[in-house]
């Protein structure tokens, strides 16, 4: 265990004790901060990353939810990285359709070789179908998935793209936090727009506050199962829904993963390197991050392990990545009220103590960030949306992995 004295406050950097106090940490290894784009007063909230123009460089999509009451229009912006580390910004959607955008997924929905975007935008899901040249902003086909708009729906909270029914284009899976539910949207034969999709409600109960989801084949039968975190549930907050097989016309059976109090964001990955996909969840109410170990048979009991208890700071979004490109997978976690990114490494045994490592400290809120290899050196970098209280310093940055 090591301790750092910084600005008069002791901080336990690694060890069995909980962090006595989260404050600025002197990084052991400096992550270089690169400006990407300024979004003054536009409150960037979420980022997804992929090579959108297929030139080998990682690009990003950023969601700016807007504030109609204050005259701030929502936007979805494509950020294309050029060779010289300049990024160009293209507004691919704007206005009421994307108001409240809070989650993004990237995938080639219509299987035409071009990466598309699905977005959770308050009361609707929006499909952004990419043109041949994604920088031709007017050529994007932006439309709501009609079946996502229902009288009772207040806000969709997360979205993912995957092939659920084994036919037509890719499908969209989404959680709704108000009211809590989980739904699959089966694509039509040619998914040019959001018309003609069929909604299948996987769960309309037991999903109170549903905040996030992931798609993984947890039971090794080749079809995608659905993992969810529903923080307002009194008992089972983290669950997986078993794909019924075939065209997914039968019901998805729900299985418990765990009962972490107030689990919001989840990420899936094989944290203990046993070949089975595990799950890590952020629990803001409890100031903890917990991971669940895949039991071998996915319907069995998932043991839980505490990754970190912040005690004072509040963990928010998280992602799994092999930060140091060595050993086991690591977990990157954003937190506030002292807004920062930390990454946690497990050493050789993920069921034991995780070491805490500094990554980045901001005076702005860090939103849903993305992990990807921006500079193509084989190490995962981090692209972050930063939302400042006064708005003037709202921006996107990427953080260069020093390992
Ligand atoms: Ca690119
Ligand atoms: Ca496409
Ligand atoms: Ca499966
Ligand atoms: Ca595992």
Structural summary, described in words:
The protein has 403 residues and is mainly beta. 0% of the residues lie in helices and 46% in strands. The protein has no helices and 31 strands. The chain has strands spanning 2-6, 9-14, 32-38, 46-50, 59-64, 75-81, 87-94, 101-107, 116-121, 124-129, 141-144, 155-162, 171-178, 180-186, 198-203, 212-216, 225-229, 238-242, 253-258, 266-269, 278-283, 288-293, 303-309, 314-321, 330-336, 340-345, 355-361, 365-366, 370-372, 381-387, 395-400. The strands form 8 sheets. Strands 3, 28, 29, 30 and 31 form a 5-stranded antiparallel beta sheet that branches. Strands 4-5-6-7 form a 4-stranded antiparallel beta sheet, with no helix packed on it. A 4-stranded antiparallel beta sheet has the order 8-9-10-11, with no helix packed on it. The two termini are 22 Å apart. One calcium ion (CA) binds at residues 270-272, 274, 276, 278, 294.
């Amino acid at each position: 265990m090591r301790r750092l004295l910084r600005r008069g406050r002791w901080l336990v950097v690694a060890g069995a004790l909980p962090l006595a106090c989260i404050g600025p940490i002197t990084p052991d290894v400096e992550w270089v901060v690169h400006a990407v784009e300024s979004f003054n007063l536009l409150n960037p909230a979420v980022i997804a990353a992929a090579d959108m123009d297929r030139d080998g460089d990682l690009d990003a999509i950023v969601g700016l939810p807007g504030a109609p009451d204050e005259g701030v229009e929502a936007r979805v912006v494509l950020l294309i990285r050029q060779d010289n580390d300049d990024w160009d910004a293209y507004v691919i959607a704007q206005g009421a359709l994307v108001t409240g955008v809070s989650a993004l997924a990237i995938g080639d929905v219509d299987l035409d070789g071009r990466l598309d975007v699905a977005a959770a935008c308050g009361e609707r899901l929006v499909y952004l179908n990419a043109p041949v040249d994604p920088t031709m902003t007017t050529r994007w086909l932006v439309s709501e998935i009609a079946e996502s708009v229902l009288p009772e729906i207040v806000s969709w909270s997360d979205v993912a793209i995957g092939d659920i029914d084994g036919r037509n284009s890719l499908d969209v899976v989404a959680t709704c936090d108000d009211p809590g539910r989980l739904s699959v949207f089966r694509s039509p034969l040619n998914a040019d727009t959001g018309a003609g999709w069929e909604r299948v409600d996987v769960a309309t109960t037991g999903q109170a506050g549903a905040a996030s989801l992931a798609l993984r084949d947890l039971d090794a039968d080749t079809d995608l199962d659905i993992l969810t975190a529903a923080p307002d549930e009194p008992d089972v907050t983290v669950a997986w829904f078993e794909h019924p097989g075939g065209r997914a016309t039968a019901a998805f059976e729900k299985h418990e993963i765990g009962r972490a109090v107030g689990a919001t964001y989840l990420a899936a990955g094989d944290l203990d390197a046993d070949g089975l996909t595990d799950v890590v969840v952020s629990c803001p109410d409890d100031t903890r991050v917990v991971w669940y170990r895949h039991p071998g048979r996915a319907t069995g009991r998932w043991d839980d392990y505490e990754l970190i208890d912040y005690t004072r700071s509040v963990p928010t979004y998280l992602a799994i990545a092999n930060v140091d490109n060595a050993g086991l997978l690591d977990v990157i976690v954003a937190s506030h009220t002292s807004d920062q990114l930390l990454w946690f490494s497990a050493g050789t045994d993920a069921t034991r103590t995780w070491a805490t490592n500094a990554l980045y400290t901001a005076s702005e809120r860090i939103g849903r960030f993305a992990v990807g290899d921006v500079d193509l050196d084989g190490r995962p970098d981090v692209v972050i949306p930063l939302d400042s209280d006064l708005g003037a310093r709202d921006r996107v940055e990427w953080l260069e992995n020093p390992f």
